[in-house]
Amino acid sequence: MNILPHKSWHVRTKKNIERVRRDEAKAAEEEEERQRRIALAEQETRTELLRKKAKSQRAIKGLDISDTDVEHVTLEAPAPTHINFFSEIEKEERQNLAKNAEHEAEKKAEKEKWERKIGLLTYLGESAVESQVTPPWYLQNKKLRLDNEAKVTETKKEKRDNDDPLLKMRAYLSKKDKKHKKDKNEKKRDRKKEKCKKLSSSSCVSIDQLRAERLQREKNERSRALALMAKLQGSSIQAVCLSIYLSIYIPNYKSLLPPPQLHLIASGVTLS
Question: Which top-rank group of organisms is this from (predicted)?
Fold first, then answer.
Protein backbone atom coordinates (compact mmCIF):
# COMPACT_ATOMS: atom_id res chain seq x y z
CA MET A 1 0.00 0.00 0.00
CA ASN A 2 2.88 2.37 0.67
CA ILE A 3 4.76 1.57 -2.58
CA LEU A 4 4.94 4.32 -5.20
CA PRO A 5 2.64 6.84 -3.45
CA HIS A 6 3.23 9.36 -6.23
CA LYS A 7 1.35 7.23 -8.80
CA SER A 8 -2.14 8.40 -9.79
CA TRP A 9 -3.66 4.94 -9.27
CA HIS A 10 -2.38 4.72 -5.68
CA VAL A 11 -5.32 4.42 -3.26
CA ARG A 12 -3.82 6.66 -0.59
CA THR A 13 -3.33 9.76 -2.68
CA LYS A 14 -5.37 12.75 -1.59
CA LYS A 15 -7.16 12.88 -4.94
CA ASN A 16 -8.34 9.28 -4.70
CA ILE A 17 -9.30 9.71 -1.05
CA GLU A 18 -11.43 12.75 -1.87
CA ARG A 19 -13.04 10.90 -4.79
CA VAL A 20 -13.94 7.97 -2.52
CA ARG A 21 -15.44 10.33 0.03
CA ARG A 22 -17.49 12.09 -2.65
CA ASP A 23 -18.72 8.75 -4.00
CA GLU A 24 -19.71 7.59 -0.53
CA ALA A 25 -21.54 10.85 0.19
CA LYS A 26 -23.32 10.68 -3.19
CA ALA A 27 -24.34 7.05 -2.61
CA ALA A 28 -25.68 7.95 0.83
CA GLU A 29 -27.72 10.82 -0.62
CA GLU A 30 -29.12 8.60 -3.40
CA GLU A 31 -30.06 5.93 -0.88
CA GLU A 32 -31.76 8.53 1.31
CA GLU A 33 -33.68 9.90 -1.68
CA ARG A 34 -34.73 6.37 -2.71
CA GLN A 35 -36.00 5.61 0.79
CA ARG A 36 -37.88 8.92 0.81
CA ARG A 37 -39.59 8.09 -2.49
CA ILE A 38 -40.51 4.62 -1.27
CA ALA A 39 -42.02 6.06 1.92
CA LEU A 40 -43.93 8.68 -0.10
CA ALA A 41 -45.30 6.04 -2.49
CA GLU A 42 -46.41 3.85 0.41
CA GLN A 43 -48.09 6.82 2.05
CA GLU A 44 -49.95 7.73 -1.15
CA THR A 45 -51.04 4.11 -1.63
CA ARG A 46 -52.38 3.90 1.93
CA THR A 47 -54.19 7.20 1.51
CA GLU A 48 -55.83 6.03 -1.72
CA LEU A 49 -56.91 2.75 -0.15
CA LEU A 50 -58.43 4.57 2.82
CA ARG A 51 -60.33 6.87 0.49
CA LYS A 52 -61.75 3.96 -1.51
CA LYS A 53 -62.69 2.14 1.68
CA ALA A 54 -64.49 5.20 3.05
CA LYS A 55 -66.39 5.68 -0.21
CA SER A 56 -67.46 2.05 -0.35
CA GLN A 57 -68.67 2.18 3.25
CA ARG A 58 -70.75 5.25 2.50
CA ALA A 59 -72.24 3.54 -0.55
CA ILE A 60 -73.16 0.44 1.46
CA LYS A 61 -74.84 2.54 4.17
CA GLY A 62 -76.96 4.29 1.52
CA LEU A 63 -75.53 7.74 1.97
CA ASP A 64 -75.90 10.30 -0.79
CA ILE A 65 -72.85 10.37 -2.95
CA SER A 66 -72.21 12.01 -6.26
CA ASP A 67 -72.04 10.23 -9.60
CA THR A 68 -68.36 10.79 -9.80
CA ASP A 69 -67.95 8.95 -6.51
CA VAL A 70 -70.13 6.08 -7.74
CA GLU A 71 -67.95 5.60 -10.75
CA HIS A 72 -64.90 5.11 -8.56
CA VAL A 73 -66.55 2.83 -5.98
CA THR A 74 -65.96 -0.86 -6.50
CA LEU A 75 -68.54 -3.13 -4.92
CA GLU A 76 -66.87 -6.31 -5.93
CA ALA A 77 -66.46 -8.91 -3.26
CA PRO A 78 -63.00 -9.02 -1.76
CA ALA A 79 -60.72 -11.82 -2.80
CA PRO A 80 -60.80 -14.82 -0.50
CA THR A 81 -57.93 -14.87 2.00
CA HIS A 82 -56.94 -17.24 4.79
CA ILE A 83 -57.93 -16.41 8.36
CA ASN A 84 -54.95 -15.41 10.52
CA PHE A 85 -55.63 -15.90 14.22
CA PHE A 86 -52.24 -14.47 15.20
CA SER A 87 -52.42 -11.17 13.33
CA GLU A 88 -52.34 -9.07 16.52
CA ILE A 89 -49.32 -10.94 17.89
CA GLU A 90 -47.48 -10.63 14.58
CA LYS A 91 -48.29 -6.91 14.48
CA GLU A 92 -46.86 -6.40 17.98
CA GLU A 93 -43.75 -8.36 17.03
CA ARG A 94 -43.25 -6.18 13.94
CA GLN A 95 -43.62 -3.05 16.07
CA ASN A 96 -41.12 -4.39 18.60
CA LEU A 97 -38.68 -5.23 15.83
CA ALA A 98 -39.05 -1.72 14.41
CA LYS A 99 -38.42 -0.21 17.85
CA ASN A 100 -35.42 -2.46 18.39
CA ALA A 101 -34.06 -1.49 14.98
CA GLU A 102 -34.32 2.20 15.89
CA HIS A 103 -32.67 1.52 19.24
CA GLU A 104 -29.86 -0.42 17.59
CA ALA A 105 -29.35 2.39 15.08
CA GLU A 106 -29.09 4.93 17.91
CA LYS A 107 -26.64 2.73 19.80
CA LYS A 108 -24.57 2.26 16.67
CA ALA A 109 -24.47 6.01 16.02
CA GLU A 110 -23.42 6.71 19.63
CA LYS A 111 -20.73 4.04 19.48
CA GLU A 112 -19.41 5.40 16.18
CA LYS A 113 -19.35 8.92 17.59
CA TRP A 114 -17.46 7.77 20.69
CA GLU A 115 -14.96 5.71 18.65
CA ARG A 116 -14.32 8.67 16.34
CA LYS A 117 -13.87 10.91 19.36
CA ILE A 118 -11.14 8.73 20.87
CA GLY A 119 -9.58 8.06 17.45
CA LEU A 120 -10.45 4.36 17.28
CA LEU A 121 -12.68 4.57 14.19
CA THR A 122 -11.07 6.06 11.09
CA TYR A 123 -12.08 6.03 7.43
CA LEU A 124 -9.87 5.54 4.43
CA GLY A 125 -7.10 8.14 4.32
CA GLU A 126 -7.92 9.56 7.76
CA SER A 127 -5.56 9.54 10.68
CA ALA A 128 -6.57 9.18 14.31
CA VAL A 129 -5.99 12.90 14.84
CA GLU A 130 -8.15 13.96 11.86
CA SER A 131 -11.06 11.76 12.95
CA GLN A 132 -11.31 13.37 16.38
CA VAL A 133 -13.85 16.13 16.94
CA THR A 134 -11.35 18.30 18.81
CA PRO A 135 -7.61 18.07 18.12
CA PRO A 136 -5.33 16.90 20.94
CA TRP A 137 -3.77 19.45 23.25
CA TYR A 138 -0.33 19.28 21.61
CA LEU A 139 -1.80 20.40 18.26
CA GLN A 140 -3.88 23.25 19.65
CA ASN A 141 -2.79 26.86 19.82
CA LYS A 142 -1.11 27.37 23.18
CA LYS A 143 -2.75 30.72 23.92
CA LEU A 144 -6.18 29.45 22.87
CA ARG A 145 -5.74 26.29 24.94
CA LEU A 146 -4.69 28.28 28.02
CA ASP A 147 -7.66 30.62 27.58
CA ASN A 148 -10.04 27.67 27.36
CA GLU A 149 -8.49 26.07 30.44
CA ALA A 150 -8.80 29.37 32.33
CA LYS A 151 -12.47 29.63 31.31
CA VAL A 152 -13.14 26.06 32.43
CA THR A 153 -11.36 26.69 35.74
CA GLU A 154 -13.31 29.90 36.28
CA THR A 155 -16.58 28.15 35.48
CA LYS A 156 -15.78 25.37 37.95
CA LYS A 157 -14.86 27.93 40.61
CA GLU A 158 -18.12 29.83 40.07
CA LYS A 159 -20.10 26.59 40.31
CA ARG A 160 -18.22 25.60 43.47
CA ASP A 161 -18.81 29.02 45.00
CA ASN A 162 -22.50 28.89 44.11
CA ASP A 163 -22.81 25.47 45.74
CA ASP A 164 -20.93 26.55 48.91
CA PRO A 165 -23.44 27.44 51.67
CA LEU A 166 -20.74 29.06 53.83
CA LEU A 167 -19.96 31.65 51.15
CA LYS A 168 -23.66 32.35 50.73
CA MET A 169 -23.98 32.87 54.49
CA ARG A 170 -20.99 35.24 54.53
CA ALA A 171 -22.42 37.23 51.64
CA TYR A 172 -25.75 37.45 53.44
CA LEU A 173 -24.11 38.58 56.70
CA SER A 174 -21.96 41.19 54.96
CA LYS A 175 -25.04 42.52 53.20
CA LYS A 176 -26.89 42.61 56.51
CA ASP A 177 -23.99 44.45 58.22
CA LYS A 178 -23.92 47.04 55.44
CA LYS A 179 -27.63 47.56 55.83
CA HIS A 180 -27.27 47.84 59.63
CA LYS A 181 -24.47 50.42 59.28
CA LYS A 182 -26.53 52.35 56.77
CA ASP A 183 -29.53 52.40 59.14
CA LYS A 184 -27.27 53.43 62.02
CA ASN A 185 -25.78 56.30 60.03
CA GLU A 186 -29.23 57.42 59.00
CA LYS A 187 -30.41 57.42 62.62
CA LYS A 188 -27.32 59.36 63.70
CA ARG A 189 -27.92 61.86 60.93
CA ASP A 190 -31.55 62.22 62.00
CA ARG A 191 -30.50 62.80 65.61
CA LYS A 192 -28.08 65.51 64.50
CA LYS A 193 -30.82 67.16 62.49
CA GLU A 194 -33.17 67.09 65.49
CA LYS A 195 -30.44 68.51 67.72
CA CYS A 196 -29.76 71.31 65.24
CA LYS A 197 -33.47 72.04 65.11
CA LYS A 198 -33.63 72.24 68.91
CA LEU A 199 -30.61 74.53 69.02
CA SER A 200 -32.06 76.74 66.34
CA SER A 201 -35.37 76.89 68.21
CA SER A 202 -33.59 77.86 71.46
CA SER A 203 -31.41 80.50 69.79
CA CYS A 204 -33.33 83.16 71.73
CA VAL A 205 -31.27 82.26 74.82
CA SER A 206 -28.47 84.81 74.97
CA ILE A 207 -24.79 84.04 75.44
CA ASP A 208 -24.66 86.28 78.51
CA GLN A 209 -27.30 84.22 80.23
CA LEU A 210 -25.40 81.01 79.52
CA ARG A 211 -22.19 82.58 80.86
CA ALA A 212 -23.96 83.74 84.02
CA GLU A 213 -25.31 80.25 84.61
CA ARG A 214 -21.82 78.80 84.19
CA LEU A 215 -20.29 81.27 86.65
CA GLN A 216 -23.01 80.54 89.18
CA ARG A 217 -22.33 76.81 88.90
CA GLU A 218 -18.60 77.39 89.41
CA LYS A 219 -19.28 79.60 92.44
CA ASN A 220 -21.50 76.95 93.98
CA GLU A 221 -18.84 74.32 93.43
CA ARG A 222 -16.17 76.50 95.08
CA SER A 223 -18.41 77.14 98.06
CA ARG A 224 -19.00 73.42 98.48
CA ALA A 225 -15.27 72.72 98.26
CA LEU A 226 -14.41 75.41 100.88
CA ALA A 227 -17.09 74.12 103.22
CA LEU A 228 -15.71 70.60 102.93
CA MET A 229 -12.13 71.77 103.63
CA ALA A 230 -13.26 73.85 106.65
CA LYS A 231 -15.09 70.85 108.03
CA LEU A 232 -12.05 68.62 107.66
CA GLN A 233 -9.69 71.21 109.28
CA GLY A 234 -12.14 72.16 112.04
CA SER A 235 -12.01 75.87 111.21
CA SER A 236 -14.15 78.46 109.50
CA ILE A 237 -14.51 79.09 105.78
CA GLN A 238 -12.78 82.49 106.16
CA ALA A 239 -9.71 80.83 107.72
CA VAL A 240 -9.54 78.34 104.86
CA CYS A 241 -9.78 81.15 102.29
CA LEU A 242 -7.05 83.13 104.08
CA SER A 243 -4.69 80.17 104.27
CA ILE A 244 -5.24 79.44 100.57
CA TYR A 245 -4.57 83.07 99.69
CA LEU A 246 -1.34 83.18 101.74
CA SER A 247 -0.13 79.84 100.34
CA ILE A 248 -0.58 81.18 96.81
CA TYR A 249 0.98 84.62 97.20
CA ILE A 250 3.32 84.04 100.22
CA PRO A 251 4.39 80.41 100.02
CA ASN A 252 6.69 80.60 103.12
CA TYR A 253 4.39 82.64 105.32
CA LYS A 254 4.50 80.03 108.09
CA SER A 255 8.23 80.58 108.59
CA LEU A 256 7.89 84.36 108.52
CA LEU A 257 5.06 84.77 111.04
CA PRO A 258 5.27 83.95 114.77
CA PRO A 259 3.05 81.18 116.19
CA PRO A 260 0.51 83.55 117.80
CA GLN A 261 -0.25 85.14 114.47
CA LEU A 262 -0.47 81.76 112.82
CA HIS A 263 -3.04 80.78 115.43
CA LEU A 264 -5.02 83.89 114.66
CA ILE A 265 -4.90 83.11 110.95
CA ALA A 266 -6.13 79.59 111.65
CA SER A 267 -9.01 81.01 113.67
CA GLY A 268 -9.97 83.31 110.78
CA VAL A 269 -8.84 86.66 112.21
CA THR A 270 -7.55 89.13 109.64
CA LEU A 271 -4.14 90.65 110.41
CA SER A 272 -3.79 94.41 110.21
Answer: Eukaryota
